[in-house]
């Protein structure tokens, strides 16, 4: 794992995204920044569709880990609810 500084522009965007809708934006911000600093993942917001058909705009981190393309969905109730990690195209439990 390399510790790479997260650009200020990304930090500012992340802070703005988490503040209005995430239950614990401070913990979520801290943990996501740690992940971004250690892995080659990028953040974005996307619509996540739950198994019951409902959907929500969530923060996701995407990229590749050891050559495997993944997306990590961060729920709005994080850290009470753990993120889910999906291999592109299939669900993958880590």
Descriptive tags:
94 residues, alpha+beta, five-stranded antiparallel beta sheet, 2 helices, 35% strand, globular
Describe the SSE topology.
Layout (H helix, E strand, L loop, with lengths): L7 H11 L6 H14 L2 E9 L5 E11 L2 E7 L9 E4 L2 E2 L3
Descriptive account of the structure:
The protein has 2 helices and 5 strands. It has helices at 8-18, 25-38; strands at 41-49, 55-65, 68-74, 84-87, 90-91. It has a 5-stranded antiparallel β-sheet. Strand 2 (55-65) and strand 3 (68-74) form a beta hairpin. Helix 1 (8-18) packs antiparallel against helix 2 (25-38). The longest helix is centred in the middle third of the chain and has 14 residues, at 25-38.
Largest sheet: 5 strands, antiparallel
- Rg over C-alpha atoms, rounded to the nearest angstrom: 13 Å
Order of helices and strands: HHEEEEE
Regarding quaternary structure, what we see is single chain
Mean pLDDT: 90
Count every helix, treating DSSP H or I runs of 4 or more residues as helices.
Answer: 2
Low-confidence stretches: none
